């Protein structure tokens, strides 16, 4: 176990190194720089001072070395678009906002999606199965911005039940959470149904039924744990998606989350903000991959982590 964890940690640090290096040089390959438009009308000396402040007057390789040295000290740099705001400070302030909205949506989507998937599998080719699959198809095919606009129009404009956008009140959670959890419900409903149908045909399930166990006992004791395994794999990408995949929802509902800053930093060539948020997302993803491995072991004791 210890060897396995150490080996995975080594892979994680190597992955982060590759991500940081690749992102650094790709950002520099984009035409222009973050100061080109902002400092266009400034005197030459003032412009040179700005470039020197952010280290953009140095050779590319030297810039890379300075960035990596600062990164090892935990310094992610300072945003160019938002002067005076450090990247670490921005991540610390905005990631809890994204986690609150996206985390609640993920929990609701996971619980409801698993329940609907189980229902569809137990009532295969009957009306509950058709209803669940219809919901799943809608959740997968309808774009987020269409669903968000529809909810804003119905619940905010027509019914006046909820605010169309904003942040700071509990009711501001409702619409974005509904929008974000809809796709999660659809995804898990499909995965759980498929896994349940595979497991229900296994010999040990038939044996459990032959022993006289009730259908509830068969499903909860023998079917669910094995049917959940393929869905656990989705958790890593789903959790990362809470932060980096919700920028459309955050923009539509004026949520000050990290996804909004991530996209705006790319559009504005904000090197340090893009680098910092990419490192955050990549680090979160590799950590969640390791956590998923341990989750496998908890759900199915037959799985053991080795260094092979």
From TrEMBL:
<feature type="transmembrane region" description="Helical">
    <location>
        <begin position="9"/>
        <end position="30"/>
    </location>
</feature>
<feature type="transmembrane region" description="Helical">
    <location>
        <begin position="173"/>
        <end position="192"/>
    </location>
</feature>
<keyword id="KW-0812">Transmembrane</keyword>
<keyword id="KW-0813">Transport</keyword>
<dbReference type="Pfam" id="PF00528">
    <property type="entry name" value="BPD_transp_1"/>
</dbReference>
<keyword id="KW-1133">Transmembrane helix</keyword>
<dbReference type="GO" id="GO:0005886">
    <property type="term" value="C:plasma membrane"/>
</dbReference>
<protein>
    <submittedName>
        <fullName>ABC-type dipeptide/oligopeptide/nickel transport system, permease component</fullName>
    </submittedName>
</protein>
<feature type="domain" description="ABC transmembrane type-1">
    <location>
        <begin position="95"/>
        <end position="296"/>
    </location>
</feature>
<dbReference type="Pfam" id="PF19300">
    <property type="entry name" value="BPD_transp_1_N"/>
</dbReference>
<dbReference type="InterPro" id="IPR035906">
    <property type="entry name" value="MetI-like_sf"/>
</dbReference>
<feature type="transmembrane region" description="Helical">
    <location>
        <begin position="275"/>
        <end position="299"/>
    </location>
</feature>
<dbReference type="InterPro" id="IPR000515">
    <property type="entry name" value="MetI-like"/>
</dbReference>
<keyword id="KW-0472">Membrane</keyword>
<comment type="similarity">
    <text>Belongs to the binding-protein-dependent transport system permease family.</text>
</comment>
<feature type="transmembrane region" description="Helical">
    <location>
        <begin position="99"/>
        <end position="123"/>
    </location>
</feature>
<feature type="transmembrane region" description="Helical">
    <location>
        <begin position="130"/>
        <end position="153"/>
    </location>
</feature>
<keyword id="KW-1003">Cell membrane</keyword>
<feature type="transmembrane region" description="Helical">
    <location>
        <begin position="234"/>
        <end position="263"/>
    </location>
</feature>
<dbReference type="GO" id="GO:0055085">
    <property type="term" value="P:transmembrane transport"/>
</dbReference>
<dbReference type="InterPro" id="IPR045621">
    <property type="entry name" value="BPD_transp_1_N"/>
</dbReference>
């Amino acid at each position: 176990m210890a060897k396995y964890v150490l080996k995975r940690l080594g892979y994680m640090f190597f992955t982060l190194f590759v991500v940081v290096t690749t992102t650094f040089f790709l950002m520099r390959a984009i035409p222009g720089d973050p100061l080109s438009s902002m400092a266009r009308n400034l005197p030459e000396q003032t412009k040179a001072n700005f470039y020197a402040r952010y280290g953009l007057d140095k050779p590319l390789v030297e810039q890379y070395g300075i960035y990596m040295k600062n990164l090892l000290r935990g310094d992610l740099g300072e945003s160019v678009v938002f002067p005076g705001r450090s990247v670490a400070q921005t991540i610390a302030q905005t990631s809890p906002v994204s986690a609150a909205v996206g985390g609640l949506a993920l929990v609701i989507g996971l619980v409801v999606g698993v329940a609907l998937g189980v229902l569809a599998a137990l009532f295969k080719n009957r009306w509950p199965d058709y209803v669940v699959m219809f919901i799943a198809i809608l959740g997968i095919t309808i774009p987020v911005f269409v669903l968000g606009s529809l909810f804003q129009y119905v619940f905010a404009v027509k019914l006046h039940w909820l605010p169309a956008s904003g942040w700071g009140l509990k009711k501001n959670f409702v619409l974005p959470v509904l929008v974000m959890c809809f796709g999660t419900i659809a995804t898990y409903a499909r995965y759980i149904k498929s896994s349940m149908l595979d497991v229900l045909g296994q010999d040990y399930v038939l044996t459990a039924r032959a022993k006289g166990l009730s259908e509830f006992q068969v499903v909860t004791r023998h079917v669910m744990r094995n049917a959940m395994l393929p869905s656990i794999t989705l958790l890593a990408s789903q959790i990362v998606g809470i932060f980096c995949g919700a920028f459309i929802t955050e923009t539509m509902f004026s949520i000050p989350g990290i996804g909004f800053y991530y996209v705006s930093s790319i559009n504005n060539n904000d090197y340090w903000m893009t680098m910092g948020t990419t490192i955050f997302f990549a680090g979160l993803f590799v950590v969640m991959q390791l956590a998923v491995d341990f989750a496998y072991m908890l759900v199915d004791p037959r799985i053991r982590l080795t260094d092979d």
